[in-house]
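Form 7-S
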Amino acid sequence: MTTKFGRILLYVFLPLFVLLTLNQVTQNNVPGLRYFLAAAPILVVLIIMIAFRVAGQYAGPIGLLTGIVVASQAFGLSLSVLWVSQAKGIILSLFVIAVFLPALFLYNIVNQAGGIQAVAQALEKLITDRGILLIVIAWAFSAMLEGLAGFGLPVAIVSPMLVGLGIDPILAVASVAIGHAWAVTFGDMGVVFQTLTALVKEDPASLASTVTIMLGIAGLFCGLAVAKLFKRLDRWPVVILLAGLMGFVQYICAVSQLSALASLLAGLSGVLGGIFINRIWFRQNNAAPSQGVESPDGAKPKMSRSLTSALVSYGLLALIMAIINLILPLRQALGQVVWTVSFPEVQTLSGFVTAAKHNQTYQPLIHPGTTILLVALLSYLANKKAGFYQSTGFWKITALTLNSTLPAIVGILAMVGLSTLMDHTGMNLLLAKLLSNVFYGAFPLVSPLLGMLGAFATGSNNNSNVLFASLQEGIALILKLSPAILVSAQTTGGSLGSMIAPAKVIVGLSTVNRQGHEGEVLRTTIPYGLAIGLIMGVVTLILTKLMG
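Output:
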């Protein structure tokens, strides 16, 4: 560890120190240096996680500290900007953690009762072709869960299911990170899309149409990437058929003002479609059925009871969330309980102003985490009464949850704190302007990559849209392009950025007991993310040419 730390100091921080010194001596007169320094905190996080294999709970704080040093030396960081940015970061992090922690608690409650393994085995019995099975679980089933509740929940739940089917834990996390990414914009009962429509001036119905078309194309390539990861590219016809089905269902839901159910029903259609296609595939190709998976202790699990427990738990969760989101009077009544935090206008020493913000709100009764926690407690009581927990008690499950989440919480707090710091010091805006200035007329090529950058930095498509959606809309007006297309490209890139977001990778690894291996996952997901992002850039450029 000492040797690794010494190499990080030598190869990462010594050059950064030299560049900061040069910037101070020349008083920001070195062309391009300011842009590089703006990207330095993100580059540091990437380098130490990927090249030096430093765990997220350490890389995040190191990146945040790097951001503070760079911002103070090159971007005029003041004490007021520091405390406001970090206070906002903590609140945004708590919003994520308030979902992540109950979700993992529910997962452990169901898993300790054998429910997760039972779901995997049920799907294995329904989809007898192993190639189709793995693709459907990592791609369609994870998208369905993303529609139910985002914030890394699909990666946390589906990765262990794949491990139970004999997949390497690192590969399992990487495949689900890639597989679910296309569904994130309409994930968490449509929260991300609802936020997006509030940020821009585009007509929601028109925007929904453009967004779902782009997400449908992205979903196809996510599915093909998952098939390649599992070395099942011979199943490409299945992927194309399911991509068309899921894209169509998502489109119909979105344009019918059912955005809250778009990803949920799209993913469900993919699972059902996979079951149907498997029957045809198995009949025509005589594929051998996949082999069943035994429980860890070698005993045959009580499939019916464990499966019922899992289906009731997550079915109840889906039902309650659907009721809250779709019955508007109920949602409005529950939404009356609000915690609001106001922040003053702050300005860096170099003159960058962040306006006052008065709508940083938390609505506990309609927050997904509250519903998940309620269902978790009810599930525990029901499972205990049914006799599932012979050697496992409430406090043991709680301790298991906390032990696996504490490192993740540290990483999430630090990464989101870095994002808000970069936002409040103008570093994010500078990077976005660099992209638009460099590419100009070809900016649509990198528009999705800007969304990916925001999602990587914040761990959230929603936060990426908060950072860059209005900026992309403004760039479209300057370049006389369709704002709806660039905004759609932004949120599509933000969705794809989920596969390279360290915060979500940390969440997934915590449930497969591989904490500290974030770099290994990112080395797998980043090439796929960049490749699909570039493909979507080409799609964006074509659409801007066609739609003017």
